[in-house]
Design goal:
seven-stranded antiparallel sheet; six-stranded antiparallel barrel; 38% strand
Length: 364
């Protein structure tokens, strides 16, 4: 059987029976309306189940949310295979009601804007670390009272905390709603915002703030690498091994009365595109190719679909089964009276009885 294309350093470690530890690097494409696989690094989330952050290929993979990477089945024939990726959803709906924010250049003082895709520093009056936020989290700041001339909403990734969690180095991930392009964060001084946890790999199934739906995360790309390292000092041995590359086929959110909430992503290998049953998505979002802000894009199959709202209520249904009581008649055998009854004579009569019936009131 052919061997994997792995680094010679890893092969040497295996042959020498050196002690090794392993972990995974997960490159997870964010839900979007893009008609193709994203190429911009900011369109991905980088996760690891290692106990520390790992930098690979210019991207920082952050720990904390990965619970379990499923087994990868392998066969000698080319066919679709499946695996699962389980993430912690304990931060779902985490937020801070009010925080005063001042923006500045990275590590600087005073007030300054933060350019699109660049890093900067936020000075706040709340300890974000004690509030349950960690480096690698994506959060959305929203003005309590929108006001002309100010940045009413912006999205950032938390990179580093210091000064008791009141100074935060961040990366600007803000998208302009009208142009759908990355935009700068205007300089603000001591303005009050609310803060909401918005890691897309966790909130994609429950996010009601945008037009994102199942057709935005289905078929998004997920790449998983396996890394081997020295257990003493964590030094990486050789290059990471490509363990799995595929697309999202399903997402499941599990919440328990006792225990932590989790979200499980079902993944299919790239062969899943060759065996899937093609069909038309009869939802308004897919028909008009809506973006994250509910605006139709150029990804529509035909230009006239942009204004076609024929599927606007396609996903609306009322499923109700009502019960009611009805009267039915049935025959009953009874013993005859007199001498005929002594000889086992019987007669039949009708009796009425109540029955419960179901009435389907479903409207689709």
């Amino acid at each position: 059987m052919a061997t994997r294309n792995i680094s010679s350093d890893i092969k040497t470690a295996f042959n020498n029976r050196d002690p090794l530890t392993s972990y995974h690097l997960i490159k997870f494409e964010k839900p979007s309306n893009l008609p193709f696989e994203a190429t911009n690094a900011n369109h991905y989330v980088y996760l690891t189940d290692a106990p520390y952050s790992v930098v690979y290929d210019g991207n920082e993979y952050v720990p904390g949310s990965t619970v379990k990477v499923g087994k990868v089945p392998e066969t000698i024939e080319a066919k679709a295979t499946n695996m699962t990726l389980q993430l912690s959803a304990v931060k779902l709906n985490k937020q801070i009601a009010r925080v005063a924010v001042t923006t500045s250049t990275l590590g600087g003082t005073g007030t300054a804007s933060i350019n699109a895709g660049q890093t900067g520093t936020l000075t706040v009056d709340v300890d974000f670390f004690k509030s349950g936020f960690y480096p690698g989290d994506e959060v959305v700041f929203t003005r309590e009272s929108p006001q002309s001339g100010y940045q009413n909403s912006f999205r950032v990734r938390l990179d580093k905390f210091y000064s008791n969690g009141t100074k935060i180095d961040v990366t600007n991930l803000t998208i302009n709603e009208s142009t759908n392009l990355a935009t700068a964060i205007n300089g603000v001084t001591n303005l009050s915002y609310s803060v909401r946890y918005e890691n897309p790999e966790i909130t994609a199934l429950t996010n009601s703030q945008s037009a994102l739906s199942f057709d935005n995360y289905i078929n998004r790309s997920v790449t998983i690498y396996r890394v081997f390292a020295n257990p003493k000092d964590g030094t990486r041995i050789g290059d990471p091994v490509l363990l799995f590359k595929g697309i999202i086929s399903k997402g499941t959110l599990q919440e328990k009365a006792s225990g932590n909430a989790t979200i499980t992503w079902s993944l299919a290998s790239h062969w899943g595109d060759f065996v899937r049953v093609q069909g038309r998505l009869t939802s308004d979002e897919s028909h008009r190719a809506l973006d994250a802000f509910g605006a139709s894009t150029d990804a529509v199959l035909r230009p006239e679909y942009k204004d076609d709202r024929g599927f606007e209520h396609a996903e609306t249904a009322v499923n109700v089964t009502a019960q009611y009581t009805d009267i039915e008649t049935r025959g009953k055998s009874v013993r005859r009276g007199g001498l005929a009854g002594w000889f086992g004579g019987k007669k039949y009569k009708e009796e009425k009885f109540e029955v419960t019936r179901d009435l389907d009131l479903s409207v689709n």
